[in-house]
Amino acid sequence: MKALAPVLAALTLRFACSLPGEFSAVESPAVTETSTRSAAPTKTSIPPTVIPSSPTPASPVMGVDTVASLSIFSTFGQGEALRSLAFSPDGTALASAGGNSEDFAIRLWEVATGLPLRTLEGHTSIIWAVAFSPNGRMLASASSDGMGMVWDWHTGSALESLNFPNQVVSVAFSPDGQTLAVGGVDEWPNASIWTYSVASWQPSMKLAEFWNIPALAYSPDGQLLVGGGTSRNVQVWRTSDGLPLFILYHSGQVSSVAISPDGSTAATGLCEASEENYQCTRGAVWLWNLHTGTLIRKLGDFADWVESVAFSVDGSLLIAGSRDGVLRFYSTSDFQPILVTTSPGGGGALAVSPDGRLLATSGNSGLIYLWKVGP
Predict the structure, then answer these.
(1) What is the residue extent of each domain of the chain?
(2) pLDDT digits (tens, 9 = 90+) for 161-176
(3) Which of 93, 104, 171, 336 is buried most, with the most CB atoms less than 10 Å from its CB?
(4) Which helix H or strand E contains 280, and what residues bound it?
(5) What is the layout of strands, in order, in the sheet containing 70-77?
(6) Which of 194, 255, 203 is nearest to 229 (CA)?
(7) How far is CA 93 from CA 86, 88, 90, 276, in A?
């Protein structure tokens, strides 16, 4: 074990550096009845009825039957490499975060126009993850500076700063919005997930893992918390009491996890194989039965690390993005590939809008690309 320590430390250091118009009703004027007995009848010209133009139809929901016509329709953004994207619950705003050397800001964008809304500044190192609260009032972030921050993103003010022993790289709100989970490095070689009561910001549980926690997600019903990654393990805990239920073992480090809308399946994105210099040579997505903790299937064919995974809102698609910008879309009925395309500029961060109509991807240049189905 002592001989392995330098290798494990180097592996973790590399991971840390490369990862963690509505219509208004108008009342017609009241008609007043007047006497016309002495007035001569006149002809009046009746103008044609004006039919208001319809609003632009919404794009179709992204699903297995529509994704083939997915394309980029909007590009915006600035800053350094982006590592996390998140849509607000109402779908009107998009948060982006990342940074490599000096740009450690969280930026909020108006989805409809791509225009900046505001910038949140306070972190002093790479921001690995951002997440909106279910009610849309708060945004949480996790950074290499050892801080988990909670923001009122509408005003740009910091509501809470949570301090950790080392870098934190993942963050998630529970579906009911009552709990915040933050994952990261504890005292080496330990890693932890810390959970907090949103009402008081007091800690509630500490769940133990190893090395680091880049992958973190709640099940849709809030009863399970899935997290882990750098140790090649992903654990499943019961949220009511922190009881560990399953360990999902992988052949390589895991960087992301997503849970299907029905809560039955977990998808993990990982580097399945690498060279001696730790350069990833094969990325993959592994699928797990969350009821039993058993492996269902492995999806390969990625030339680089799969950094992000997500399910479509209707559950018919699994989406995976790799570090080199390749996006793969699979039918969840048989996990056959439906579409393979590339996000410009590389980078694997992605997010699906709450209504399922938009996909956001990011490049290493700091640009954000919005995709939709149809023209």
Answers:
(1) 58-373
(2) 999 999 999 999 999 9
(3) 171
(4) strand 280-289
(5) 70-77, 367-373, 358-362, 350-352
(6) 255
(7) 8, 5, 8, 42
CA–CA separation, 68 vs 341, rounded Å?
10
Per-residue pLDDT tens over the stretch 254-302: 999 999 999 999 999 999 999 888 899 999 999 999 999 999 999 988 9
Buried b (16+ CB within 10 A) or exposed e, 283-314: bbbbbbebeeeeeeeebeebebbbbbbbbbbe
Helix, strand, coil content of the chain in percent (nearest 5): 5, 45, 50
pLDDT bracket for residue 57 (50, 70, 90): low
CA 318 to chain CA centroid, Å, is: 14
CA atoms within 13 A of residue 366's CA, in its CB half-sphere: 12
CB 127 within 8 A of CB 142: yes
Mean pLDDT for the stretch of residues 23-49: 34
Q: Which ranges constitute the DSSP H helices of the chain?
A: 5-18
CA distance 252 to 321: 17
CATH code of the domain occupying 58-373: 2.130.10.10
| Residue whose C-alpha is closest to residue 77's, from 373, 371, 364 | 364
pLDDT > 90 fraction of the chain, expressed in percent and rounded:
75
CA angle 203, 204, 208 (to 5 degrees): 95
- Residues 316-341, mean pLDDT to the nearest whole number: 96
Hey, what are 165's tokens? 């022993």
120 and 104 Cβ atoms separated by less than 8 Å: no
Q: Kindly report the average pLDDT of the chain as a whole number.
A: 86
- pTM of the predicted model as reported, rounded to 2 decimal places: 0.84
pLDDT for position 84: 95
How far apart are alpha carbons 353 and 67 in whole angstroms?
14
